[in-house]
Specification:
single chain, alpha/beta, D-Maltodextrin-Binding Protein, domain 2, 12 helices, elongated
Length: 394
């Protein structure tokens, strides 16, 4: 089967099986949520409408027709997606009762390594593959390699635990960077006070808590610091700068737990996982913006596509130093990374079915309820369905 052709697999959505010219797709994908597609149907035999469903294939269960795919799909990666992934894997059983999906929350770097090493069928990652990783993916995913779907969009919270402060604090990028670099060491420092004139700040020492494991959350957070803060001197990376002395813990859950137990601590974590910690409103333009799903989605909507990888790739470069009103720039577009080609039809069918569920209206609503992510727009969902339709068996 050619990559650009219609996969003969069980479907969850009638857009499965569309055939889009690769060059045209590349141009269209570059527009992301502003894009529109001309879809060419492969035929009703390949795209059945669910019984009792509507013309979009949405049956009585609200998530599309029941799929007949069978077997187990194994993935691993970003811990930021853990809450959403639990909801997704549980919800997927309602549309594919004979299939099982397992996900190991091992961090973005370990997830990509496991995917490229053949341990996982797909990976969750808070940062896109580097070009070298994508080239390596051709060894297991065929000549077009792997591609990214931004199925989970979420703000990264700058979260803190300071006795005596029970409210949101306002900070700009330079002050956040100075805190995390160790230059600002006390909560009553003038750099913090000038953004919070009405707050009685204690002289509690600041304890910075960062991720000990390679993390896409770290990569996204340091991308923001590198782009938006003049006081940050390190390049963005999924590993925390070794020159900065600070406390550390594994996974989002680890840094949140340590921060919750430490008076004066501050960390960065997926906003859905900070629990009862207070957080920072970030200065964007002339206003302070608190993290929320709508503000995160707004930041992604103005992003620039990554070029030079698979024709159906949907990775983006975020505008971290945006001054757009209402946008929250410390955001991650967490990806699910799939192969364009799988070694057998069963795995390809499972990958298609699960990927389509992730981006479906039901799947996005399930993740929003569980993790507070920003649901994909209809245009972005259409783009994703086309990308998924390119999956085939070798």
């Amino acid at each position: 089967m050619e990559l650009g052709g219609c996969a003969q697999t069980p479907t969850l959505n009638p857009q499965r099986g569309t055939n889009v010219n690769a060059a045209s797709f590349g141009r269209t994908a570059a527009l992301l949520s502003l894009a529109s597609f001309v879809l060419v149907a492969c035929g009703e035999a390949n795209n059945p409408v669910a019984e009792n469903g509507d013309e979009n294939g949405n049956g009585e269960n609200g998530g599309g027709e029941t799929s007949e795919v069978q077997g187990t799909l194994v993935g691993g990666g970003a811990s930021s997606q853990e809450a959403a992934m639990t909801a997704w894997t549980n919800g997927f059983t309602s549309v594919a009762p004979e299939a099982q999906v397992n996900y190991a929350s091992v961090g973005s770097g370990a997830g990509r390594d496991g995917f490229l090493g053949g341990e996982y069928d797909w990976a969750g990652s808070d940062s896109a593959m580097e070009d070298e990783e994508w080239e390596q993916s051709k060894e297991i995913c065929g000549p077009d390699g792997a591609f990214h779907i931004p199925a989970y969009i979420s703000p990264i919270a700058v979260a803190f635990n300071v006795e005596g402060i029970d409210e949101t604090l306002n900070l700009d990028a330079d002050t956040i960077a100075s805190i995390f670099s160790g230059e600002v060491t006390s909560w009553d420092d003038d750099a913090i006070a000038e953004h919070n004139e009405d707050v009685d700040l204690p002289d509690t020492p600041i304890t910075v808590v960062h991720r000990a494991d390679d993390s896409g959350t770290t990569d996204n957070f340091t991308e923001y610091l590198e782009a938006a803060a003049s006081t940050w001197e390190w390049e963005a990376s999924d590993a925390w700068p070794s020159e900065i002395s600070a406390e550390s813990a594994q996974q989002n859950s680890g840094v949140v737990d340590l921060t919750s137990q430490t008076d004066g601590a501050i960390t960065y974590a997926d906003a859905s996982q900070i629990g009862g910690l207070n957080s920072v409103a970030v200065l964007v333009g002339e206003d302070y913006v608190e993290h929320n799903a709508e503000a995160a989605s707004q930041a992604v909507a103005s992003s620039t596509p990554v070029e030079g990888q698979a024709p159906n790739n949907m990775a983006v470069e975020l505008d971290r130093d945006t001054e757009e009103a209402g946008a929250y720039p410390i955001v991650l577009a967490a990806y699910n990374i799939f192969c364009n080609e799988y070694p057998d039809q069963q795995t390809a069918d499972l990958a298609v079915a699960f990927a389509e569920y992730l981006v479906s209206e039901e799947g996005q609503q399930t993740a929003e309820a569980a993790a507070g992510n920003a649901p994909m727009s209809e245009d972005l969902r259409s783009t994703a369905m086309d990308a998924i339709s390119q999956i085939s068996a070798q």
